[in-house]
Please model this.
Amino acid sequence: MTQQDRFTVRPPSEVSLDSLVDLVRSYEEHATGVATYTREDILLETGHPGYEDNSWCLTGPHGQVFAWAALTAQGGTLDAALTVRPGRHAESAARTLLARLLDRADELAARQGIRYALTVSGVLSGDEVVPSVLREAGFSPGATAGQYTIDLTVPPLPPVLPDGGTIRRAGPDDLGALHTIHLTSRGKGPKTEDPVLFDARLRRLREAGGAVLLMEVTGRATGYVLTQAADGKEGRVLELAVAPAFRGLGIGYALLTAGLAELRALGAARARVLLDTGDLHDPEALGRVLTVQAARTVTRFHRIGD
Model:
């Protein structure tokens, strides 16, 4: 039996959610020793427009998923994810689906007449396969983010608001302000430039039990945090953004603690927090004000189109 006979590239619609969860948790545990991924995380990632046409799974003879890749257009950037099951087939699996990503990126560039920059996000520290395969294909490591597990059995400190500051749930009328903050914040993650797609993303989050909290100072929108109660025990802080003019005033920490308090009120005993290097004015202060159980680094690799 040849390698080609044993492995098949399939659309994710032909693969169960539990198989994808098992793949990602195996990857996490091998790279960092801790697995945190849930079905709710999968549902958020697979619900965006165009996902089905730009994602692939590599499966083995018994249906086990060995790799998963997906591509999302964000303005002039194509943001991709590539997750590979550890083991002796990892390198060949990574190369197979990376080739799919590169081919689709070339197709989209030719169709749109745009010279896209291609990024691959979510590469964990401790991954011994994907970074080397990406470097072979001309990618370079770029921005990093911190992924933290926060103990919520200890109540987080109440948010300290600046004078005139309030935090509330954002509504439909706040879309413009939220999108402006998203595009102008110092976070180095991919930006959703299309306001319609940004709105769709927030709606999916709310439908999945998530919340969008907005901070205003004297009536002016200054930052937001996105949270989701992933299951009965663990929550997520998915994104935090602060308007550039209001950095250094403690708004990021106030939003973070407000988001964590929201998750704790929903029964979460811990929260996974992803913070871009630009999210907080002083990231090292996180461990001084919260109970951090684990921390790991996530790297984004980038490649400029030819």
